[in-house]
Amino acid sequence: MGDYIMVGCDVSDRSLMVQVAQNAEAAEKRSFGNSPEGRKKMVVFLTGRSRECAGAQVVFAYEAGPHGFGLHDELTACGIRAHVLAPTLLPQSVKGRKDKTDEKDALRILEALRGHLLAGNRLPTVWVPDRTTRDDREIVRSRLDVDRKARRVRVQTRMLLKRTAVSRPEGLGKGWTLAYRAWLRGLAHAPSPLAAGSQIALSSLLRQLAMHEEELRTLDEAVAHVAAQDRYRAAVERLDEESGVGVLTAMVFLTEMGDLNRFSNRRQVAAYLGIVAGKYLTGNAQNRYGRITRQGSSRVRAVLCQAAWRRVKSDPAERARYERIVAGNRQRTKRALVACMRHLAIRLWHRARTAGNATPPSRPPTGGRRQFALPAQPRKYERRSPALVLREKRRRAV
To answer: I want to staple 21 with a disulfide (CB 3.0 to 4.6 A). Which of 27, 271, 310, 385 is the partner?
Structure first.
């Protein structure tokens, strides 16, 4: 066992509350400002403590949050070993949820770090993407955010027409066609069945929609430019071969998933994306499965959902898989869609890994790791009872 200076930190907008302890000793509370000067003072303090303890290694931990990974980068550049922890995986009692302070949060992080370093307990760290991946994520996330705003404005426009009892004329189509847009612009000017206030509100919504759509075109060009870089080109081309998947879906998948080599099998991919069923298997309760966990990136699940619906409509094999799970029961449509999403996510993971130019891994692949080849035909999965699986294992053992 080495000699450690362990630091648990609770990060807020204005301050850094730290609990510092050497090995199993009692913790010491300190507070620093969350500013360049404050973080520099904290580093000086920690390096000074390390020198006082004959060069003990400083290990720092804090929870992932809205402040990103800037603190991790600063500490790593100063030679301090830093961990970013997943808040949802840190143990917390019911009493602790009702008695929450910065000091206690920092102490809870310190105890988790101490258990990892001194007792070998599992530390729930998150993967820290490199700066380029983070920068590419900002472009893709901005594109998704603007699209969400544009869809919201369209909904607000339809609700305005519904509140004012103005119906859509026949012959304009079902979507936002050019004729429908021209009709909306006509409603925004007199003479119109809308009152003066509703005309002003509709004009505002149309201007907002035009602004969002112009911004979407700009961001589409930016995403296409990033996708054409050597870092993503081969992987995007491989993913684009899948029906229902385009450049935007491919870039969302690659930037949000990051280092694809950190997943060893398809189960880890599905669990990371939160498209596996939650379960409660303890004691006599051995068959309690709930809804999907919804862990991981909601952005990836959103684009997988859209792509899966497109594949169900256009791909006969995917349509057959969907209908097989539904089996005439409309209450199983969500379950069938999630199964199609999971199947698509695993295929994208296979394709991106074999492309060669996917997001560069932050560490080399572990030796002896099993490699999965992309199946030529979609696999048919069937649910087998635990008793049947056990009998098959015994038969193979004999």
So the answer is: 27
Question: Is the pLDDT assigned to residue 25 strictly greater than 80?
Answer: yes
CA distance 270 to 272: 5
Q: Does the structure show a pLDDT above 80 at 382?
A: no
Nearest alpha carbon to residue 160 among 180, 132, 184: 184
Spatial contact of 223 and 139, defined as CB atoms under 8 Å apart: yes
- Run of H or E including 81: strand 81-85
Full set of structural domains in the chain with CATH: 4-119 (3.30.420.40), 131-227 (no CATH), 233-386 (no CATH)
Residue with tokens 């930037």: 255
What is the average per-residue pLDDT within 127-136? Answer: 95
Distance CA 373, CA 389 (A): 24
Decide if 118 contacts 23 (C-beta within 8 A): yes
Predicted structure pTM score = 0.82
Within 10 angstroms of residue 140's Cβ, the number of other Cβ atoms is: 23
> Comparing 25-39, 57-71, 177-191, 352-366, which segment has the lowest mean pLDDT?
352-366
